Amino acid sequence: MFTFRSKIPVSVPMAFHWHERPGALDRLLPPWENVQIEQRSDSIDPGSRVVLRMSLGGLPLRWVAEHTELHPNDYFRDLQVSGPFSRWEHTHRFHTDDEGNCVLEDQVDYRIPGGSLGQRLGKSTVEQMLVQMFRYRHDTTTHDLIAHARYQERSPMKIAITGASGLVGSQLAPFLTTGGHEVVSISRSAGENTIQWDIKNQQIDAAALEGIDAVIHLAGESVVGRWTDKKKEAIRRSRVDGTTLLAKTLAGLQTPPKVLVCASAMGFYGDRGDEILTESSPAGDGFLADVCQEWEASADPARQAGIRVAHARLGIVLSPKGGALKQMLTPFKLGVGGKIGNGKQWWSWISLDDVIGALHHIMMNETIHGPVNLTAPKAMTNLEFTKVLGSVLSRPTFLPVPAFAAKLALGEMADEMLLSSCRMEPKVLESTTYPFRDPNLERCLRKLLGRQ
Question: Which residues have CB under 8 Å from 255's CB, separation 6+?
Fold first, then answer.
């Protein structure tokens, strides 16, 4: 029997409703585990099932769980139908403490396969896995609920997201739905809760955007890869043309949204050495700086129509599911990771959860408009970042990547993204009292990689 308990500073009904809403499972899956949701029910009613696809020791595995009991504001229970354990019964309990706060208790009655031998060999490993998993789950639940509680007096919103299937969007959407908001996707593909658009032909279903309260615009061609002329044009066009289409359409609506939050990037500032960069710092030089300036200016039609527009200048987003950290993990785990170039370039990093939290903060805070640096309070040099990651993974970091090798492999992208120095500070977030979840790099990486 395994039990993990945490106090959450919200009421029991609020915490229970969070678990009932679509998106809760997405938010609770540990990012270091290779797990995909294959099938789900949008409820925790008895009889509803979840099918997870994962790997165990490199072998593919399906875990089927069925909800068996539901007692609102008290507990709900699910049982493994098939999966890696001989037995797995998970009870989620909710209590109210003397101060009126929720005490969340996860209790798992499990049995390891293989009898007494399996118990002897696997017990400590499974216990450690459960501690890491439920520590992550409770931390995520707590911070998500605190974020939503700040605005619990507000009415639920209808929010449209472009790029909803990307690294940020795939977690932002479930974060918002667990807070009680309705989320629709703006996508090239047709589907349920989807508004279709075609950036190339500058077409979008404008009628479907009527009544939307907020739009979060994340879509754009990936910047990863060698920057050929064709790739650079795709990067620029996807951002500029997409934002132009969206801004003009929103400006022409009878009931436009109150706010448009557009993604931008740290590339706006270019390579600036040790200079501290705030939202008032001028643009830099280079391809990405030029793209970011044109990208942000493309939202002008919405701004001129009276819509509050904010530009989220993202730093290096940390998640083992994608982006820079995912690319770094394999060489670092093999013990062949190291600094890039001389390692003196500043890396402005931010956890994926803080990106999501900051986008929500910007959307809900009516005083925020214009550029907003989305980065942790303390940037790190590439050398410092390398040492911290190596320490978390318990691996050496003595094999540097020479600058010429990075340029040979990636060309212009290496110059502007890996070797350039950008020391951002999140002045707008700090001045509007955004509560960072992950301000410390080592603690952030330990949480993301299951090594707390």
Answer: 210, 211
β-pair type (182-187, 194-198): parallel
The three-class DSSP label of residue 31 is coil
* Residue pLDDT, tens place only, 199-212: 999 999 999 999 99
Copy the structure tokens of residue 185: 């996707």
Query: Topology of domain 2-130, per CATH?
Result: Alpha-D-Glucose-1,6-Bisphosphate; Chain A, domain 4 (3.30.530)
CA distances from 125 to 37, 69, 81, 109, 160 (A): 24, 29, 22, 16, 42
**pLDDT tens for residues 36-90?**
999 998 899 999 999 999 987 778 999 999 999 999 999 999 999 999 999 999 9
CB atoms within 10 A of CB 60: 9
Please name the CATH architecture into which domain 158-449 falls.
Answer: 3-Layer(aba) Sandwich (3.40)
Residue 242 CA to residue 263 CA, distance in Å, equals 12
Alpha helices by DSSP H, 12-114: 12-20, 24-28
Q: To which residue do tokens 């290096």 refer?
A: 316
Query: Cβ distance 342 to 400 under 8 Å?
Result: no
Between residues 3 and 452, the one the model is more confident about: 3
Q: CATH 3.40.50.720 residue ranges in the chain? A: 158-449
**pTM of the predicted model, to two decimals?**
0.96
Is residue 226 pLDDT above 80, yes or no?
yes
